[in-house]
Amino acid sequence: MIHFYHVTKKFDRYSTALHDVTFHLEKGEFAFLTGASGAGKSTLLKLILREMLPTEGQVVVNGRNLNAMKKRHLPFFRREIGMVFQDFKLIERMTVFENLSFILTVLNVSPKEHKKKAYAALRAVNLQHKLNAYPLQLSGGEQQRVAIARALINDPLILIGDEPTGNLDPDLSAEMIQIFSDAHLRGSTVLLATHDRELIRSSDRRVITLDKGRISRMEGGETHIENEPRPSGTPFLSASGSK
Ligand SMILES: Nc1ncnc2c1ncn2[C@@H]1O[C@H](COP(=O)(O)OP(=O)(O)O)[C@@H](O)[C@H]1O
Ligand SMILES: [Mg+2]
Questions:
Q1: Which of 34, 70, 162, 236 to pair with 200, CA 20 to 30 A apart?
Q2: Residues 81, 160: contact at Cβ < 8 Å?
Q3: 227 within some domain
């Protein structure tokens, strides 16, 4: 689902954010991406979203070589990816429902389906009663759950989080990880960047560690994949199977 082949990313002559990174995340996997601040985690995620291109090497996501992808195909490509950021990025002047409806408009989903999808996504994060609240009327944990609902709203093939629990206390972080795990069980391939070692220790997921732009450790992986519950029969898996 996500393949990096000898990927190097330089921002200028002096700094190399990623150096010869090769890894594969298969469909249905759940992995943490970890490493100290500045290790290259956000850069790696931006390459997956094709917010930038590698300096060297190839990135293949959902069967598409991103180096070769045309700009006009980007919106269709990004429809398949749900993204959660540390700072939520909710639109403050819009209600929870309007935030979700807005993203569905961006994703070109017909307005008829907005209510149904918004309810379903909010139910998944237990916030259906906050439909008409504004972001600033919610706690930090609730805002983050709305951000996750927004990322999950179109059943993404891939769910990516960049320090999604960075602003939350440990109890809430565990709750967030549970929501990501639920999405994983429904069929999403999940990659979560975090420097929270405690969070990683408390789960038995695959861990990819970056150290100054290089992969320094890979725990889990192949053997782990076989133990993963293989989701099947979910709507989007059958849809993706035909691609
Ligand atoms: N747009 C940019 N321009 C120049 N340097 C950058 C840019 N983005 C990231 N970097 C550098 O690349 C390295 C990796 O950054 P980043 O991917 O944000 O790490 P992390 O998310 O693990 O903290 C850092 O040294 C950072 O300063
Ligand atoms: Mg980062």
A1: 236
A2: yes
A3: yes
Long-range contacts of 167-175 (CB under 8 A, 24+ apart): 167/86, 167/87, 167/140, 168/140, 168/141, 168/144, 170/198, 170/199, 172/140, 172/141, 172/144, 173/199, 174/199, 174/202, 175/141
- Asked if residue 228 is part of any domain, the answer here is yes
The reported pTM is 0.85
Give the residue whose CA is nearest to atom 25 of ligand 1.
38
Ligand 1 geometric centre to CA of 215 (Å): 15
Check residue 24 and give its pLDDT: 96
DSSP H/E element including 174: helix 170-185
CATH number at residue 216: 3.40.50.300
CA pair distance 219, 6, nearest whole angstrom = 19
pLDDT tens per residue, range 3-44: 999 999 999 888 899 999 999 999 999 999 999 999 999 999
Q: Which domain holds residue 98?
A: 28-43+71-241
Q: How far is CA 136 from CA 86, 130, 133, 148, 177, in A?
A: 16, 12, 8, 16, 23
Does ligand 1 lie within 6 Å of residue 11's CB atom? yes
